[in-house]
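User:
Care to share a sequence and structure tokens?

Assistant:
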Amino acid sequence: MTKGHDAVPDAERERLRRYLEAVVAARPAPVHTTVAFNAVYFGYDLGGEGYGGSPLRLDDFPVITFGACAPVLPVGAMVCVTTGSDPLFAEIVYREGAHPGVSAHGDVPAWVSGAPAGAEGPDAPGDGAAPRRRELLVPDVHAFGPGLSLSPVQLRRLRARGRWINGAGHVVVDVCYPSPEAARRDESTAYTEYLLTSAREQLLSPFVPVSLADLVGGTDDDDLRAGLLGLLDTVRGVLASSDLLRLWGGYATTRAALAACRRETGPLGGDDLTSLAAAVEHAAVPGQRRYGLGAPVTVYTAVGPRLRGFPGAAEPLAGTGYAAAVCRANIALADVVRHGSEQGLFENGSRITLDDAFEGGGVWRSHHPGDAEAPGDPLLPAGRGWASTASTSPAPSASPAPSASSASPAPLGTRPEAEPDPVDLPLADEAHIGPDELLRDEADLVAWRAPLRLSHLTHAWFPLHPAVARRLPPTRGRRSALRLELEHAGQTLAEAEAVQLVAAEPGDGTHRLTPIAWPHAFFPGLLLELRWAPGAGVIRMATVAVEEPVRVGDRVTGHRYDPRVLTREDVPGSDRHGDSAVGLGPRQLVMRTVRRCGLLTLDGHALLDRSLLPHAAYGHRPAPSQQAALESAVTELLAQRILEPALGSRDARGRPRFPARDGQAAIALIGYRPAVRRVIRPWGGTDTEPGGAELLAAQFVSGHLRRLRPGCSPSDGQRTAFREHCRRLGKADGWELPYGYTFVTEHTRGH
């Protein structure tokens, strides 16, 4: 699971899915990806104990004080809230911006929506070095079971006094960020950095079932970060794949809870949600006008404060109920926009879009007349409020840029000084992607390197370099018989694949080897090195292994590859049996279109003009239902960081360009960035690519704790082994075994 969602076998995904569905159903608040990770990694008990029986050490929790300045506390952080008596242990399950400029009724000044952390006005972005932002944190004070929870009477007393938590049971703090980049991180990235720094002792605890250090084989920061990101990707993918759950951003809630809310007639039930949607839809519609058209009207509404204005909403919004209500309200608004409008444009002429996903529980923008604005994804936070009022336009906090690991290419929107301009490529089979590279051309040897293409796999052929073709001996017919010896570095090929009898026949402007029985593990983009001695009847073809296998998008490989060919041709709907978009779902169709039709950089990035996506996907203007499905898929892919937004421009001939050129009209792009992550080798076996040999059946089991029967105690040898285990995890002084447990040393489980 450290390799990411796609690397996990289906049976293991199903086991994890069943557990997480139960966790989401049991928790009182929507479960964020980071909270779901906590449940799996630290052990959340569904019987009522929560984390009460987990290996967490309460002394490691950061202490926060109501109304004071606090360090960064992302969703998922375990905290201790100071009180006048007993400490209040809790898990942060939700957070949002609490800017003082937002009114109690949810009215938001335009400049607040999408503003960077620390902004004080439309022309005052604030301290650029160490910004501060007021945030509202929702703690789950019952997450650690009844043994570590305060009684209802104690909680009511704390809420009434309002010194440690406010009247709703929430914590409002001024968060001090070390840099503007830290303030723009999404929750998963922020939690990753938090676990690797502030909560490192908690992450590497030797009491967890299997420490992350054991999973990745060491305590190197890059390895830990890659493994942690892989685990979060696994959890995120499993949550997104569940038919029982709905997601809003990174928060998951059950469909059953949403349906029950819509049937509810009390405060914040279905009637109130319908009223909220109608209020946002008509917020910018002007009243009856007598003297022609008036000026455009724009209204910004924050969901959280607006919900507090409904009669009887105070108690339902207390505690974790606030997080649940905000999530349900945003899902209801998103459904109304998705199904009741054309890209946010309603019949009354208003355009409704989500403008800021963080401030005030989500800020929605209502603009009239909406048809005067260019259409776009209404559910992708754009930060138009800040952009329209500020003299400078920093990146909005609502749509942070993801953090790239050391093994990943630079994020879209940034370009190193030495990076060449991208090439505008047509959809056809471009000759300038993956050209042959002549390595040696001598009297006794010709060697060259070329990537495998999709057409080669599909039609069982491979082109010969011109230096070889012109030296082939003349024949009476059109074909020259050759012996092909194929090697796949680190793998053993079947005899029929390792040695093949092929023919060199003329093709379109070159000679080709055909027919070739390609091994199943070969894929478009795989680099091949070929050698031929003039006059000999043998051509040797081999792949080139790399030191460590990597995951590139959905592909895992331990061999060298051409990133441009991999991006362009290893797409959904394409394999050695054919190349068609027929039968693809909206997500797969979006990915195929962006990778096939987007601008292509030398390192394999693909960027597409977002406005052209529907026509590029279908070849014509799609039906409204098809277009809505595409936009919904784009929203999900952007939220999951599989695709990324970028800014480009359009030149005088109408061609999109990236990066944006001065003097050209700016356009929104969606980009595919093939993130490259190191693959951790499994214990007790060796890596294989799809189609290669299976992993060894023996399974390596890391050292772990095991509860003893009453009256039993661990041996001195097991105590010593546990101290050594702790030292390997970076605990210099070692730790002692907890009472009632022994230590099981690492071993290999049988076949």
User: Anything to note?
Assistant: The longest strand covers residues 88-97. The two ends are 21 Å apart (CA to CA). Residues 288-293, 391-431, 680-698 have pLDDT under 50 and may be disordered. The chain has five domains: 5-102+126-254, 256-389, 437-551, 563-678, 699-749.
